[in-house]
Write a structure and sequence with these properties.
- It is a single chain.
- The chain has about 350 residues and is of the alpha+beta class.
- The chain folds into two domains: about 140 residues, no CATH class; about 160 residues, no CATH class.
- About 40% of the residues lie in helices and about 20% in strands.
- The strands form two sheets. Strands 1-2-3-4-5-7-6 form a seven-stranded mixed beta barrel. It has a three-stranded antiparallel β-sheet with strand order 8-9-10.
- α7 packs across α9 and α10 packs antiparallel against α11.
- The radius of gyration is 26 Å and the shape is globular.
- The N terminus is likely disordered.
């Protein structure tokens, strides 16, 4: 009898322990977000964030070397928020010097958001308005749209996420304000997504980039009126070496920073006519490597095939009014008119190309 009671108690104890550990395991699995993505660059909906830091020091000193302590709050839904301590500093060259609100770099190190994509980010670039007003807001929206347009051609491109940014002064000396902006996918995130490694070298030229890729970049930049780029010093171009080498000598390249373009047509974007030979940012300059007429013709076909998709992105972009959309489409029409008269654009490329 005693043996039976002991055996029953032993069985009950084992079952209780099993149920206890199972419930604990289930709880941990349900509460653990370490394998859950926030969807920072996969979700398309604009994201609202709040940045709280010393706005007076930011506006007065525009610190580029030293970080300012701050907090970021993500507002992914009306009832949800996620707040963590971060660090903030300014970045960039031209816009840092010319803009009242310098562009920012956010440091997420040690923030521990609990999401795989956010926790994989150490530093992230944020583009926001250069100054107050609708005109400055329009420049940001158009630059965001250009990133989306280039992504229509290839996944080897920087992803972006539109933002509504609430700025709050941690020292209570400045009034809060709200700007539009966007995050740019960090270089290491893009490299991981494309199974590649960033490389930097002055020895690189357009001829060391995969031919079809650099031709697409050159024609795209011509289409949007961008001559502010170069491969040799990686100026507004990031270069990567694929980890699965298709070629020992060739690299991939990704363009970025599109505010100094004819399509955006920012008031501060005034070209140096001694360098460019132009006095207006709206004038196009082709900076691609020299190819045969047949190769250029094939490259142009991709742009003709993507025309409807690109125009669709513009027409469906609800954050620009009808007048702004018409101006963008009219500018692109002048490029596509050249493409329709195929010999015309081919002659432009052949007469302007570089041999490097």
């Amino acid at each position: 009898m005693k043996k039976r009671l002991f055996l029953r108690r032993h069985i009950f104890l084992v079952l209780a322990l099993v149920l206890f550990f199972h419930s604990q395991s289930s709880f941990c699995q349900s509460s653990d977000t370490s394998d859950v993505s926030f969807g920072l660059f996969t979700d398309e909906e604009p994201l609202e964030i709040t940045l709280q830091f010393d706005l007076s020091t930011y506006l007065r000193k525009k610190p580029k070397e030293e970080y300012l302590p701050g907090k970021i709050t993500f507002h992914p839904g009306s009832a949800d928020s996620l707040t963590r301590e971060i660090r903030v500093r300014t970045r960039g060259e031209f816009r840092n010097a010319q803009c009242y609100y310098a562009p920012l770099e956010l440091n997420f190190r040690h923030a521990d958001f609990g999401y795989t994509d956010l926790d994989g980010i150490r530093r992230i670039k944020m583009v926001s308005q250069c100054s107050f007003g609708r005109e400055s807001e329009k420049y940001v929206l158009l630059e965001y749209l250009i990133y989306k347009m280039y992504s229509a051609f290839t996944d080897t491109s920087f992803r972006v996420r539109m933002l509504t940014i609430n700025f709050v002064d941690s020292e209570n000396r400045q009034k809060p304000y709200t700007h539009v902006g966007f995050f740019i996918e960090p270089v290491k995130m893009l490299a991981g997504r494309t199974n590649s490694v960033e490389i930097e070298s002055w020895a690189l030229t357009q001829k060391t980039v995969y031919p079809g890729m650099i031709d697409r970049i050159a024609i795209f930049n011509y289409m949007i009126g961008n001559f502010d780029w170069a491969v040799p010093n990686q100026h507004n171009i990031k270069t990567f070496k694929p980890q699965v080498f298709e070629s020992e000598y060739l690299v991939t390249a990704v363009p970025y920073d599109f505010d100094f373009t004819g399509l955006v047509d920012a008031a501060y974007a005034i070209p140096d006519d001694k360098i460019t030979g132009t006095t207006t940012i709206r004038e196009r300059i082709f900076l691609g490597v020299c190819r045969s007429r047949e190769v250029y013709q094939q490259a142009i076909e991709e742009f003709l095939e993507k025309k409807d998709e690109i125009y669709g992105l513009i027409n469906e972009f609800h954050y620009l009014d009808a007048k702004q959309k018409k101006k963008v489409i009219n500018y692109l029409d002048t490029f596509y008119d050249q493409c329709t008269g195929k010999q015309k654009i081919l002659n432009v490329f052949l007469n302007s190309c570089k041999n490097f």
